Amino acid sequence: MTVLAPTLEAFFVERLINQKDASPRTIAAYRDTLKLLLRYASERTGTQPSKLDFAELDAPLISGFLDHLEHGRGNTARTRNARLAAIHSLYRFAALRHPEHAHTIARVIEIPTKRHTRPLLCYLDMPEITALLAAPDRATWLGRRDHALLLTAIMTGLRVSELTSLRLQDVTLKKPGAHCRVIAKGRKTRTASLTPETVAVLREWLRERTGDPTDPVFPTRQGAPLTPRGVAWLLDKHIATATTHCPSLAAKRVTPHVLRHSNAMLLRAKKVDILTIALWLGHESATTTETYLHADQTIKQETLDRITPTGTPPGRYQPSDAVIAFLDQL
Question: What are the residue numbers of the active site?
Fold first, then answer.
């Protein structure tokens, strides 16, 4: 057996699980990246994954793998960079354990991330939010669940992973201070405040839902927690229904994260400052939240309104008459 296999095992068990106490989502993301890499390397070299070594997984092969992700699998540059970050983490761990492969490891670590354009922020305006919330059929159990879930997502700005991991014991509807407690990104515990409208809807839903304290707030029919993919599926279904009443939705690709963006833009519309929005959304740095300033067209319009006109007359330049031009030159 080569040194790669035991190093890979030690990377997950010692570094990620024992030393860093990485979240299950992080471990799964790193696992999937390295599975893709080993399968790609095995196909290119004809060597079984368990017999691959760092000598085969050199910088040219890693670069080819990254190109394969983009052009063969259709991944975005952001996904490519996330996969590269996982590979870099493994190789930095291996650098201290296997100095005999230092040259190969160093070349892989030097592979840069790829720059990419940032798309315009997508979010829903109030008519679109209203149409989406009206889409679930609240005469059915699933419709009432979906309506409560969508309203909670839009009015709290929770990430889809935070939404699907909510348990009954995490929700407090008592006034004042109604909130839900979530384990946020980076394993930070935070509370998301609930508006009176959200409290009213959740109170009715939880009365119907019942269950043990550790049961999910938004379950499947079988009682299991909804998955992020399940939330995306039901969102697509209700967006299709809402589009018939609000055609502007047809031009937008609405994902669960778009609901989070919509919450931030609702706060911006109420003149909430950017630091408060960062706290509300659980951002570690307000720099992340500044993207909502760029998306807020109201701020830009107010700035334009404050600019003093220069007095430049409208219209295109017209050259003077040829005879007048001749006389002007005398």
Answer: 159, 185, 257, 260, 283, 292
Tokens 């309104």, residue located:
305
SS3 label, residue 179: strand
- pTM for this model (two decimals): 0.73
Q: What is the Cβ-side half-sphere exposure of residue 92, based on CA atoms within 13 angstroms?
A: 11
Distance of CA 102 to the CA centre of its chain: 35
Tell me the average pLDDT across 95-122: 89
In tens, the pLDDT along 198-207 reads 999 999 999 9
CA nearest to 170, candidates 185, 156, 181, 154: 181
H or E element, residue 274? helix 274-281
User: CB of 49 within 8 A of CB of 38?
Assistant: yes
The DSSP output letter for 281 is: H
- Which alpha helices (DSSP H) does 122-188 contain, by range? 126-134, 141-156, 160-164
